[in-house]
Amino acid sequence: MKNNLYRFIISCIFGHLCFASHEYKFPIRGAELIFPRDHGAHPDYKTEWWYLTGHFKTDKDEYGFQLTFFRSASSEDGKIRQSYMAHAAVVNKTKKFYLNEERFNQENWNAGASVSTLNTYNGNWFLSMESDSEQMRARFSIRELGVFYFDLIPQKEKVLFGDRGYSQKGKDPKNASYYITFPRLQLKGKFLNKEGLLESMDGQVWMDHEFSSSHLSNGQIGWNWASLQFEDQTEIMVYSMRRKDGKVDPNSVLYCIDQNGRIEEYKSHQFSWTPIQYWKSKKTGGKYPIVYELSWHNKKGEKKFVKVKADLESQEFVGAISNFNYWEGSCSVFDENNQKLGLGYTEMTGYDRELTF
């Protein structure tokens, strides 16, 4: 049972498994995304997620958090069924502790997602959008902490990574997703702590929305991903696809976003992700590079460099329900002189075991 659920979670997160009884749609290069419809769910695709990572301050402490809503389709007896999972994690950067929680529900049982706009929920966690302004609202909780609810106001226009949103992840054109991002959202909200006290929340958030039917290709065992938000109002998104032979997959890419939302793209041979310091999990044995350097030459030929450091080493999400583990954590970004440049989030998969199918 646990192994089957693990395979489902891998399918849900990475969209790799397919079912012969149903032909799912695949992303098409050059297709036009239409909004607000494409902020919503796409049940004809195998897998989909809406993913928030961010940083905020309350009256007392500084935090980082992730909140992800997953949808995954399966086919049985010719009928399509949707399953929904949600992950939430919070790191208290002031008091130095990390907590997470996960949920899993089937279609029509306390979880769902609209197909006309962004409106998804899992139990009393939710993420929804005001279609006219693209302003969002969210709510989640961690049992040991309390309830977080907040508004998200876009500070920059959404961006479409890849070819107008078509983001190829493997050598087969079907190994791709549609990739929509809000690189900078202002967070305003409230935190109701376990003592029943209400604290104000202020911060900044990154949001990704992806949907696909086949994400990883043969030979890929996981990835390193990061979103970095700089104090000068620029951003970086990077993913380095990790291969079984130890090489970086050629479909890896780094994107720089300037103050006006313009994107510069750097292919796998144009940048490097270099591990500096590792942390080994006592729970899973996974050994994660929680300090690393990114370097590249910009379009002017200038060498660029940043160092990314985890705000807390132990930010591994150990799946109590799914038996699936990954490192997803709040980070800070520095220059070569160790001057702080901004904040970020890093995700690392396939370190405790290869993502095999």
Describe this structure in words.
The chain has 1 helix and 23 strands. With 357 residues, the protein is mostly beta strands. Strand 11 (166-168) and strand 12 (176-193) form a beta hairpin. The radius of gyration is 19 Å and the shape is globular. It starts with a helix and ends in a 9-residue tail after the last strand. Residues 1-7 and 15-21 have low confidence and may be disordered.
Descriptors for this entry?
single chain; 357 residues; mainly beta; AttH-like fold; 13-stranded antiparallel beta sheet; ten-stranded antiparallel beta sheet; globular; disordered N terminus
Can you give the mean pLDDT?
A: 90
Task: Give me the count of strands.
Answer: 23
Strand content: over 45%
Order of helices and strands: HEEEEEEEEEEEEEEEEEEEEEEE
User: If you compute it from the alpha carbons, what radius of gyration comes out, rounded to the nearest whole angstrom?
Assistant: 19 Å
CATH superfamily assignment? AttH-like domain
The biggest sheet amounts to:
13 strands, antiparallel
- Stretches with pLDDT under 50, minimum 5 residues: 1-7, 15-21
CATH-derived architecture: Beta Barrel
Fraction of residues in helix: under 10%
Structural category is mainly beta
